[in-house]
């Protein structure tokens, strides 16, 4: 889970990636390639992230605070034989952290950047538009990696989370995290094009993200939720991300306590892959470089 300060107004720096077309034409030099421009755009994203210190701290601290609060309040409460609540919760929070860094963050930040005219200015430069998305993707990957490491570390040190000792579960961790983050990143970009503006984005996105966390097995044991709630949660990727993370960090014996009586790795991959395609379709159809008022 993550959050973006509503008062934050990250301002892109088009000059960091803009290519002066006229100068290149006169000198005969080739404009910089996509990799170089994407690297420059990634640097801009990192600088913007670091300069907004309150948002940066909140991004990493808020999920850890939730973990400590819920883990302490329900400490030692058994979920199944050999599994206590805080171990279950850590696995869910790792998935929620990936969801927040990708979907929630992008769906809020991109409309803000569009409101202040950053996207409009970038669209008017010779910068390949794909470089903008490359910068966002690298930033998402970085924050997701750091946040996952912090949550896993807290879980191991304070809540008895057991790390896998074989390669198989770690491979599961990486493909679930990878597919889930890609799907949520694309959906975040897509939703950013749907919300009206940067002022309304937090009011739309944050409650939606919170509801999905409650019905996807992050805060409560998924199998104990009402059937209708399980059915709704199972439509969205977060439920399958939490289930995948439980298969990595909880004992194999816990699989029988899942709704289907197993980890369902094949179905997890299928659903997350499908959401990648849905997210790509929505992002392509809805993304806007200008506000609607600009035409």
Automatic annotation (TrEMBL):
**Residue ranges occupied by any ABC transmembrane type-2 domain in the UniProt entry:** 54-290
PROSITE patterns in the record, alphabetically? ABC_TM2 (PS51012)
TM region(s), chain numbering: 55-76, 88-112, 133-161, 173-195, 207-229, 268-287
Q: How does it sit in the membrane?
A: Multi-pass membrane protein
What keywords were assigned to this record? Antibiotic resistance, Cell membrane, Membrane, Transmembrane, Transmembrane helix, Transport
- Please report which protein family the annotation says this sequence is part of: Belongs to the ABC-2 integral membrane protein family.
The name on file for this protein is Transport permease protein
Q: What is the lineage of its organism?
A: Bacteria, Bacillati, Actinomycetota, Actinomycetes, Micromonosporales
